[in-house]
Design a protein that fits this description.
globular; 2 domains; alpha+beta; His-Me finger endonuclease fold; four-stranded antiparallel beta sheet; two-stranded antiparallel ribbon; 27% helix
Length: 196
Amino acid sequence: MAHRRKSKEGSSYPSNWRAIARAVKDAAGWRCIRCDHPHDPKAGRTLTVHHLDMDCGNNAWWNLAALCQSCHLKVQNKVVMERPWVLTEHTNWFRPYVAGFYARKYLGIDLTREQVMARLPELLALERVHVLGVVAVDRPPCTATHPATAGEELSFAHRDIRVVGLGWYICEWCGIGWRSLPYTPELVPFATGGGV
């Protein structure tokens, strides 16, 4: 018998859950985002809303997936948002959701679906960067000037620098982030903002 994942302890549905679930289904056009099957209870394809992180109190858009019952059961037992995923690409339907999750997990920011879609490759790269230390450069830095951060010299111009932990920095103005790599004292740019 397969192990069933359960909702996170202490989480509960909000009082307006029905309205939230309906809005998620409306946004999906009343079709499963995974298999594209329409809502069809007679065929056993009732559209549901799944909390991808199993926390029914977390109703961020990236955590709510409109899935038919069949896909819901498959996804519920396999998708673990907190599990590092670096060796293969995420499936197309899942990419926007996990990218929104990565924006919160690694950058500490909540982005709209539109913002995530505009930054999708960059946000998806955050997991590899964090887990493997891979750095990607996708766009030039902004032209704004800023004071050096924590006494470090920067080879390019940024302003409104914020330290986001573990050697990570982000420019609040343009959204480009980077980390100070342990094997070199220079800062290597890493694209986390803007459109690619």
